[in-house]
Design brief:
Helix content: 10-25%
CATH architecture of the largest domain: Sandwich
CATH superfamily of the largest domain: Immunoglobulins
Number of domains: 2
Distance between the termini: 169 Å
Strand content: 35-45%
Radius of gyration: 43 Å
CATH class of the largest domain: Mainly Beta
Structural class: alpha+beta
Number of strands: 18
Length: 295
C-alpha cells in the first residue's frame, strides 16, 4: 500500500469516528411486573455538528407484533420540550435528562422491542428486546391415586400442576422419581392482558411404589433463568398410618397420681379419727353406768 493510499484510509477512519453516534444505549433484558424499567440513549455529535436539525425518538414494537405495529413513545425535537406518548394498556413514562425514559410500574403488555432513533440530517438507530415477567402463583402440585379394580389393572397416579397470572407465555415440566414424564399442557391468556394460566397433567403407574418425589418446574423459553419449582412427596395412602391403639387393661381404674394418693390418705385419717371418738364416747358411757350400779 502506497503512502498516499494509507493516508486516505486514515482520513476516512478519522472522519468516520467523528460522525453522529450513539455512545450509550441501555434497555434491560428482563424486568419483573410492578418494577420500573429505565431506558437510556445518549448520542455524540460529529465534529462541527450542531443540534439545529436534531431529533431523538423512542419506538416500541409489541412482543407479538411486527414492524407494522411499531409505535412512537417519546420524542425530543431541537428547540422543543421532550414529550412522552402514552398508549392504551402500556405503562406511564417518566422523562429524565439525556433522552432517558423510565417505564413506571411495568406490566406484561410492555414487553417488546425498544428502539432509539437519533437524526441530525443523517440517522442512526439501536434496538433491544425487553421482557416483563411474573411467576404469578407459581407452580402448585396435586396428585391422586387411582386404584385398579382388580389384579389385572394397575394402580395409577394422576399428577396435576398449575400456575396462574404468569408472564410471558410459560412452559412446564413434571418430573417423577427423577425422570421427566410426558404431560398434556394448556396455556391460555384468559383476559388478553399478557398474563397466562398454565396447567399440565400426566398419569403414571404407581405399581410397587410406596413413595416417590414429584417435581413441577415452571420456566420461560424466552428467558435464561432458573425455573420456579414445587416439590411434593407421594406416599401411598395407609403406608405410614399409625398402628391401631389397644385398649389399656383395667381402663376403668385410673392409674394413681400424686393428687389421688394424697386424697386417699386424708380420707383414711378422717375415718380413723371418727372411730377414735366413738370408742372414747363408749368408754365414758360404760364408766358412768358402772358408777351408778355401785351406788
Amino acid at each position: 500500500m502506497s503512502a498516499r493510499a494509507a493516508c486516505s484510509l486514515l482520513l476516512c477512519l478519522v472522519a468516520g469516528s467523528l460522525q453522529l453516534s450513539i455512545k450509550e444505549f441501555v434497555v434491560p433484558k428482563a424486568v419483573e411486573v410492578g418494577q420500573d424499567a429505565e431506558l437510556r440513549c445518549q448520542y455524540e455529535l460529529g465534529e462541527n455538528e450542531t443540534e439545529v436539525a436534531l431529533y431523538v425518538k423512542w419506538w416500541w414494537t409489541p412482543q407479538s407484533g411486527s414492524s407494522y405495529d411499531r409505535k412512537q413513545i417519546y420524542q425530543r425535537i431541537a428547540g422543543q420540550a421532550a414529550e412522552a406518548i402514552h398508549h392504551d394498556n402500556t405503562s406511564q413514562i417518566e422523562i429524565k435528562n439525556d433522552d432517558t425514559i423510565v417505564l413506571l410500574d411495568v406490566n406484561p403488555v410492555d414487553s417488546g422491542t425498544y428502539e432509539c432513533e437519533v437524526s441530525n440530517i443523517e440517522e442512526i438507530r439501536n434496538h433491544e428486546k425487553l421482557i416483563v415477567f411474573s411467576m404469578g402463583t407459581g407452580p402448585e402440585i396435586n396428585y391422586t391415586l387411582i386404584e385398579g379394580d382388580n389384579d389385572v389393572e394397575e394402580d395409577m397416579l394422576l399428577i396435576e400442576c398449575k400456575a396462574e397470572n404468569v408472564a410471558p407465555s410459560p412452559d412446564m415440566a413434571i418430573i417423577f422419581q427423577g425422570g421427566k414424564i410426558d404431560i398434556s399442557k394448556n396455556v391460555e391468556d384468559v383476559n388478553q392482558d399478557g398474563l397466562y394460566d398454565i396447567s399440565g397433567n400426566a398419569t403414571v403407574s404407581a405399581k410397587d411404589i410406596d413413595e416417590g418425589e414429584i417435581r413441577c418446574e415452571l420456566f420461560y423459553s424466552t428467558l435464561d433463568h432458573p425455573p420456579y419449582v414445587d416439590v411434593e412427596t407421594y406416599i401411598r395412602p395407609g403406608r405410614d398410618a399409625p398402628p391401631t391403639a389397644q385398649p389399656a387393661q383395667n381402663a376403668t381404674e385410673p392409674e394413681p397420681t400424686h393428687e389421688s394418693l394424697q386424697n386417699s390418705s386424708d380420707d383414711a385419717g378422717r375415718v380413723h379419727s371418727t372411730w377414735t371418738l366413738l370408742l372414747f364416747a363408749g368408754a365414758v358411757t360404760y364408766l358412768q353406768a358402772t358408777q351408778t350400779f355401785r351406788l
